[in-house]
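Field notebook, page 931. I keep forgetting to write these up properly, so this time I am using the form the group agreed on. The chain and the ligand, phosphoenolpyruvate, are recorded exactly as supplied. Prediction of the bound pose follows.
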Amino acid sequence: MPSSVLTRKSNPSASKPAKIGKCVYFFGGGKSEGNESMKNLLGGKGANLAEMAGHPDLRLPVPPGFTITTEVCAYYWQNKRSYPKGLRELVGDSLARIERLSGKKFGDPSNPLLVSVRSGARKSMPGMMETILNVGLTKDTIPGLIAQTRNERFVYDAYRRLIMMYSDVVMEKAAGVSPAEDQGIRKQLERIMDAAKKRKGVRLDTELDAKDLKKLCARFKDKVQEVLGEAFPDEPMAQLWGSIGAVFASWMGKRAVSYRRIEGIPEEWGTAVNVQAMVFGNMGNNSATGVGFTRNPGDGDNRFYGEFLVNAQGEDVVAGIRTPAPINEFSRSDQSQNRKSLEQLMPEAYKELDDIVRRLERHYRDMLDIEFTIEKKRLYMLQCRVGKRNGPAAVKIALDMLREKLIAKEEAVLRVTPAQLDELLHPIVDPAAEAKHKPLAKGLPAGPGGAKGMIVFTAAEAVAWAKSGKQVILVREETNPEDVEGMRAAQAILTARGGMTSHAALVARGWGKCCVVGCGSLEIDLPKKTVSVAGGKTLQEGDWLTLNGSKGLVYEGSLPMKDASESNKMLDDFLKVCSQVRRLKVRANADTPEDAARARKFGAEGIGLFRVEHMFYGKGSEEPLFKLRKMIVSKTEAERRAALDELFPHVKADIKATLQAMKGLPVTIRTIDPPLHEFVPHDPTALAELAQSLGIGLAELEKRAAGLRESNPMMGHRGVRLGITYPEVTEMQVRAIFEAAAELAKEGVKTLPEIMIPVVCVETELHNQFALVEKVYGEVLQAQGVRVIPHLVGTMIEIPRACIVADRLAEVAQFFSFGTNDLTQMGFGFSRDDTGAFMPGYLDKQILAADPFQTIDQPGIGELMRMGVERGRKVRKDLKIGICGEHGGEPASVEFCHSLGFSYVSCSPFRVPIAILAAAQAVVKEKPKRK
Ligand code: PEP
Ligand code: MG
C-alpha cells in the first residue's frame, strides 16, 4: 500500500537519470562482485546468483555469468534505448571471463559457449519479462556443438528453442510488432511443430528426432523471414545484444506494465539482465531440470518439495507442457503416482541437491524456491529466491522457523503479509456439502480456499463478466502472463495442464487466490466454448463450477461455502506472537451481540463502535425498526416520547447482551446517527401501517416523510444534531446503557460502556449532550440503588473542524474516536455515497494512487488526524484515542495510527486478525527509525 494516496508513481522516462555507477557485476568460479543485499541494483535473480556463487558459506555450483544493473535499464529508457558508454567493452570483458572459466568460446566453431539472457527485477514478476536461452547458436557453431556433444538431436532442439524465443521476444515483442490474437510468431511456430508431431504420429517434443528437428529449424527460419520480414540473425554478438535489449524492452511490455500496476511495483525500479553460461538439462537421460521449494509452499510442511523433468530445459517445467515428476516421495501427487522420483533416478545428484537446499535455507533463514539443472549427472544451481507461499504456509513456516530458532519473534511477524493472513480467514467449500458430491475432476491444489463461479474461457471474458457483477472461474488449457487481468478478475482459476510451479500456480499463490492446475482430465474446446471431462460430461460457458483449491477438487454446480474457521490453532498461535510484539490495541466494530461474540473469538479487546441504529438492520429487526420509524416521523415531543418508550426495551436489551458478551472489556456505544431518509419506508403498505400506528392519515405521513428528505443526507440532520434537537432521543439511549450496565453489575457481570457522541464540530455540542448524560446517570444511580457505574464519555472526531478544535473538545471528552469515513468525506469534499461515479477514473488516471475511503490519505486526512491527536493530548495527556472508520482494519492505515500514538484501532470482526498483525508489524518497522 502506498503511504499516501496522493503519491504518483513516477515514470522512469520522465525524470533525469541519476549518475550511473558500475554497470556489470561478475559471478563464477567461487567469487562474486555482488551479493544478496544488492537486489535494487542487481535484481533479485542477479543478487542471489552472486550470493550462491560467491558467499564463503555457499560457493555453490553456479554456471559463471554477469549481471547488467537495473541502473542500465533506467538509462536505456531515459536515453532513447541506448546504453551507457563503455558497456559494450564491459560485457566483452565479462564474456571473456566466462570463457576462461568454462573453457569454451562464444562464437567459436569448434568449442562454442552458449549463454542464457534473463531478466530479473527487484521483486519477482513471474513470467512477466523475457528469457532467451541458447544464445550463440549459429550456422557456424552448430557443427562444433554437435561434434562436442555427439548429440545432433540435442543441438537442433536447442536451436529450435532459440529461434522460437528470439523471434518472439526480440524480433516481435521488443520491436513493437503487435500481431492479431493467436497470430504471434511463437504461436505460428508452435503450430508448425504440432503439425510435425501429428505427421509423425507422436505426442511429445522428445519424440522428434534430430532429422525432424533439423527440418523444423529450417522451416522455422523461413517462417520468421516470411512473417517478420527479416532473417533470423546468424551472428553470436548480434544475438547477444538483441537479447539484452529485448530484456530491457520487456520492462515496458504490456503485460509487465499491467502486472506492475496490480502489484504496485514502481516503474523506476527497472530490470537487470543476467547473462550466464548455459548448462543443459536436455543432454539425454542423465540430464534433467527442475524447480523446488525448501518447504512446501502449499502448506508449509518442512520438507524439500519439488518437480523435475528428465531430458528437458527449464522452460519445459514451468510451461506446463509435460507434467513433471516428483523430486522425492514427499512431492508425489496423484498425477505423478507412477513416475520415478529424482531421488530414485539420480540418487547422487539428489543427495547433493538436498544438501545444498539445507545449507541455503540455513543461510537465508527463509523458505526458498530454487531452480537447478543436471547436465550429464552434474548438478548446477540456476536460481534461488525467497519462495512465494500461500497464507497457511506462510503462517506455519513463520511459527516453525521461530521454534527452530532460525528467526526471532519480530522477524516472524514480518514473514506473513496481511493478505496472506487473510487467506486463513477465507471461505472454504462447505465440507458437509462436499462430502455429498463427487468431484468432476481432480487437479493440483495450487491456491487455497474455495470458490465458485461461472465458467469463462478467456481472460477478456473474465474481466468483462466480472465487471457486469458476475462471479467467474477462468478455465484455461494453461495460463500465460497475458491472462493476468482475467485471472485477477476471476474468483478462481482452473487449468488443464501444468504443475505446481506453472504460471497459473505461481501467480495464484502469490495472490492467495483459489486455483486448481494440471487437471488433466479436462478437454477444453475453445471455439465451441465447452469443457468436457473424461467420462463424458460437457459443460458450457456460463455453467457453474465450484473449486476446492486446497485439495485440487473440481465440482459441477454451485456448492455452498463456509466462512473460514474461527478457531484455527495455527492462526491463534501466530496472533499470540503478534500480540507479544504490538502495542496498539485492537477492537471490533460490532452492532449486535452476535457480532460481539465473533469479535471476541477473533481476539478483539473491546468494541470500538457499536452503532445503535444498526441494530435495526437485518434479521429479526422488523419490530424495533418499525418503532424507530415511528420515532423518526414523530412530530411532537409527546409523539416522540411515546415512540421512544416503545423503542427503549429493544435498545436496552441489545446493549445489555453486547455488554455481557464483552465481559468488562470496553464497549463504545455511539448515540444514534441515522441518515434519516434511509429509515423512512417507501413501500406503500409499510407507509400505511406506520400511519395507522401513529394514528395519522397517509397524506400527513407522506408530508412528514417529505420533510425528512435531504439533498446530502450525510451532512444533514444526523449525529449529535439529532440529540440537540431532540434531547429525549439521547436520554433514552443513555438510560438504556446505564440501566443495562447496572443490571449486569447486580448479576455480577463487569461492564465498561463508553458513550460516544458522533458528528461533533463544536465543544458546546458536547457540553449540551454530556449534561444530559450526567442527568440520566444520576437518575439511574438513584433508581437502581447503585453507587457507580464505570463508564467514559467521549466523542467521535469526524469533521475537520473537530480536529482543529480538538483541544477544546478534549477539555470535556474522555476519549476520541476518529470516524475516518466522514473525515475523509468532509476533508476531500467527496460525498461518500457518490464516489462510484468518479473514483474509478481518479484511480485509473492516477489522480489518486489509492481510494482514500480504503486507505488513509496520510498527507491530507492524516494531517488532520495528527492535529487532532496533538491538540487533544495537549490538554488531556491520557486521552484515549481510537479509530472506528473502515480504515481501522486496513494495514497501512493501522500502521499510520500506530505512528500517531493511537490507543487502539477498531474494525470489522473479520479484519481483527489483520489489524493485530499490522499493529505488530508497525512496531517492528519503526525500530530502525529509532536507532
Ligand atoms: C465514520 O464516519 O468513520 C464512522 C465510523 O461513522 P459512520 O461510518 O457510521 O458514519
Ligand atoms: Mg461517521
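OBSERVATIONS:
- The radius of gyration is 33 Å.
- Residues 637-662 form the longest helix (26 residues).
FOLLOW-UP: compare against the apo run.
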